[in-house]
Specification:
185 residues; 9 helices; 69% helix
């Protein structure tokens, strides 16, 4: 999209299925002072559209959104448990889609999520896998989770570390990756 593209034209492109326009509207509606009216519901709608059109940043946003929703629903009432049980798999699904498109943010987030164990089952081997991908395949050394991976390695056996590295390599090869990972902005 060009910087001077009229808002109405962006909306028309988004409605016609243009993923860049959808993502632009999603981010714009989420913020103040962007020239796009602040509207969280519209933002979510356009994030969903962009994510469905395979925009990794939109997929990551939705994964993070549903993760936080599952994490913040703490009560033991049946409706709270149902909300958590509904949000957690949706979060994992969107984060996995972003991860498959080499989203560096998704790799790091999944590492933290599996290490934390608050929303997804705690799995230090899986956490190490995602940290390892971010460190070894990521192209942003400033944000690479080297410290997290190294700290986690002190809690794992050599066999668990090798298993995590094998999982990371299998994941990478299954994607047939030739492109660079998406770095944080």
């Amino acid at each position: 999209l060009q910087k001077d593209t009229p808002f109405e034209e962006i909306v028309a492109k988004a409605k016609a299925g243009d993923a860049d326009a959808q993502f632009y509207l999603a981010k714009g509606h989420a913020s103040f002072g962007t020239g796009v009216p602040h509207n969280p519901q519209e933002s979510h709608k356009w994030y969903m559209a962009a994510a469905t059109n395979n925009v990794p940043e939109a997929q990551f946003y939705l994964g993070q959104h549903f993760y936080e929703e599952a994490k913040s629903t703490r009560g033991n009432a049946p409706k709270d448990k149902a909300k958590r049980q509904q949000a957690a798999p949706i979060a994992l699904s969107w984060l996995a889609k972003a991860a498959k498109q080499s989203s560096f943010k998704a790799w790091v987030f999944l590492g933290k999520a599996f290490e934390d164990g608050t929303v997804f089952a705690k799995d230090p081997v899986e956490a190490y896998k995602w940290y390892h991908l971010a460190v070894e395949k990521g192209d942003n050394n400033i944000f690479a989770p080297v410290t997290q991976r190294n700290a986690l390695s002190l809690k794992l056996t050599p066999a668990q570390i090798e298993l995590a590295k094998r999982r990371a390599l299998d994941f990478w090869e299954a994607q047939g990756q030739e492109r660079k990972p998406t770095a944080p902005k």
